[in-house]
Write a structure and sequence with these properties.
Elements: H1 3-12, H2 22-31, H3 53-66, E1 70-75, H4 78-92, E2 97-98, E3 111-115, H5 119-129, E4 138-142, H6 148-159, E5 165-168, E6 172-176, E7 184-187, H7 194-206
Parallel strand pairs: 1-2, 1-3, 3-4, 5-7
Antiparallel strand pairs: 4-6, 5-6
Helix pairs in contact: 2-3, 3-4, 5-6
């Protein structure tokens, strides 16, 4: 986590009460603010090395909230993400089923996870998701604020003509292909506590001065 980058994110982000899209409001309420316990309490409990505990717990909240069972994992962290998704699915009792060319999933996928280091690789992975996605599919993009290159890739993903809704949770990016919805982009805190809410309340008061 880059302290300055994360501070900027917090200042611009909102919780469920700052969201005016019914679809996104319902999603973040079910995923982030439903009281789902964290899957991992400390780094030593993580089964992988290069996915942060915050990203792993955010991913678990998403899996639990949408009851994702049909999964598609692509990119340079596919093995690590698969381990997290398997553990999350078992905890949430969703019976995860991973898509592959050898074992295609009937219908469309519930959740895709893509990871890469630059715009080209991530946009190519995004295109692979599209034939198996629908308006309810959540495409999770790994660690969008890790480097300047991944931040540029995230901006390029937001501009993709197939993408209509995105949610920046800082640790992960969420992408939706909802043709029935106007283009909207959100920054949402996946974790909340009274202290953070109190500090960020100053931002709202500042806007009234």
């Amino acid at each position: 986590m880059k302290p300055l980058s994360y501070t900027k994110f917090l200042w611009k982000s909102s919780n469920a009460h700052g969201i005016h899209s019914p679809f996104v409001y319902n999603l973040v309420t079910k995923c982030f603010y439903s009281g789902t316990p964290k899957l991992y309490r400390s780094k030593k409990h993580l089964p992988v090395e290069n996915i942060s505990i915050e990203a792993a717990n955010t991913l678990h909240k998403i899996v639990s909230g949408i009851k994702a069972s049909k999964l598609y994992v692509l990119g340079n962290k596919a093995d690590e993400a698969t381990k997290i998704l398997q553990a999350s699915g078992e905890k949430a009792n969703t019976q995860p089923w991973f898509f592959s060319t050898l074992a295609p999933i009937p219908g469309t996928i519930d959740l895709a996870y893509i990871s890469g280091n630059d715009t080209k690789s991530l946009l190519l992975l995004l295109e692979q998701i599209l034939p198996n996605a629908n308006s309810k599919t959540v495409c999770v993009v790994d660690n969008i604020h890790a480097t300047e290159a991944t931040e540029k890739a995230w901006e390029a993903i937001k501009e993709n003509p197939n993408v209509t809704v995105t949610i920046d949770t800082y640790y992960l990016g969420l992408v939706f292909f909802r043709k029935e919805q106007a283009e909207q982009h959100f920054m949402v805190r996946p974790f909340t506590n009274w202290f953070t809410n109190a500090i960020l309340g100053v931002r709202n008061l500042w806007g009234l001065i």
